[in-house]
Amino acid sequence: MEKEEGITINENFFNEDSIFDDKQDLNFEAPGLLELKKEMQEVQSEKEEKIDDLLSYELIKKNLSYKLPHQANGALSIIRDMNTHALLADEVGLGKTITTGMVIKESIVRGFVKKILILTPPSLVDQWVAELKEKFELDFKIVESADDWVDSKFMIASLDRVKIFDNQKGEFKHKLAHEVNWDLVIVDEAHKLKERNTVRWKFVDMLKKKRFLLLTATPFQNDLLELYNLLNLLKKGHLGTVKEFRNKFLYKGNKRYPLNPLELRKKLGELMIRRKRTEIGIDYKPRVPKIIPVELTKEEKVIYDNICDLIKSKYFLASGSQINGLLAVYAILPKITSSSKSAIESLTKIWQSDEYHEETRAFAKGILDDYAKLRVDSKIETLFNLVKEIRARSDDEKILIYTRHPTTLRYIVEKLAPLNLKIVEFMGGLDREEKTRRINEFKSGNADILISTDTGAEGLNFQFCRNLINYDLPWNPMSVEQRIGRLDRIGQKREMYIYSLATKETMEEYVVDLIINKMCCVGLVIGELPIILFNLGLDGEGEYGRNKIEEKLMMSFIDSKHNLDIFASEVSQIAKIVDTGIREYREMEKANKEILDVK
Fold first, then answer.
1. What is the pTM of this model?
2. CA-CA distance, 421 to 416, in Å (whole number)?
């Protein structure tokens, strides 16, 4: 079992009774009884209130891109018919976040809830916060430390962060969460609660909650007892005892195929809402990946090799101590490989700064001198020709170009000027009104190209565009998925072309192939990749605070010592892990359909 200073970070408890015995006092004193009575009266009052529609819909409809009846109907059913005690098991791509946001907003407007807790996978915390702010005008506080639960109202947390159990003290590190009387608790990707003997399951079970909403498209994998554990967490006794469940629904001990499937489906239907894309009529269009090779000239290849040399062996502080390789990679590699303009800017800062050793500065100056002699920029020329090719298909072909850095963005605008196309720049720092103006300019036809940084286009919808160009590519697959998600949304009517520039005979070539061809463009529906990475334990932050796959790639870059064969082998191993995760997800998806969608 993996431990750190007496803190359990492993999932499983082999003797959960010995750990959790006597942790809760079940004796109620008079104040507790009064509080319980008050809560019962509130619940009874809510049941008596007639709920025919969503009072809050008028407040939020202006913020929603589309009016999708299944979302509002689902929210209404959860509140009215299930007293907000439900499993929302819609297929991926139907907008469970929006349906849940409607439940939250309506419950607040009707005065049903005052304290709300949302538990999500690590990679989805920021996305939840943004969606609730932009679409429902709700401010949720992210739990960063164990003290953040004080004066809690609307809270959101990574379940992986808050479930840590301290073995030495015999308590959860975030025990304050269990002292709050939550009006509503929501758990996203709740299939991770399938095993009862885990700290994850126990942490959620110990929360005091009046209303409880679980979200997952795949409530179980290969064992119907996983489904039992999930439903028992939601409503204890709904499927009977474990023994009763086995006798009634497990056919000759078969853990996957149930006895009495229609009766099981009926019992599930009392707590579960599940809609399929085919029923709703939502059809996501395919992503067509196109890797665009960039052929470096001999002189450019020398510069690239020298930059890698600088990062790996010649990056020293003025004191003479070598800068940590990983820090060097994180600090300057993305900027230097983004564009020649961005590289020159970063190298100039090194050359002119007294913080670096004189040999490091001299080496950077040598690379700058080599840049000054270049007469061609192969990457920007490749982009120039690609834009011409796309526009040759039709004059109304809009193009969304992504780069990680503002310097590269301005450089692209400058170099595409000879094409006489109307270009809109989009980056962080724009206020809401200016963002709206520029989006409308792009959407209306007054602009042909929108060039954006990753921070600039967060949460925006460009489903009227089908061409995306990754001028440079983040090594974090979730960042790339978010880029593509700007186009791959409900309302996209055409297949999408995902162009990604990849410099040949460099490590970038292998990273682009991994993230685009093995992860983001393999036939998954928007929203499935985060689930797969979550299931693999690869969606959260690694040891250095970055996405785990990004850290794996960065470490491979350092360890390979610029040997492409070694780096390619490391990337291949990551691809195999992801491929296994995709296959397991497909099997899990199939098993759920066999049980949940049986008629």
1. 0.79
2. 8
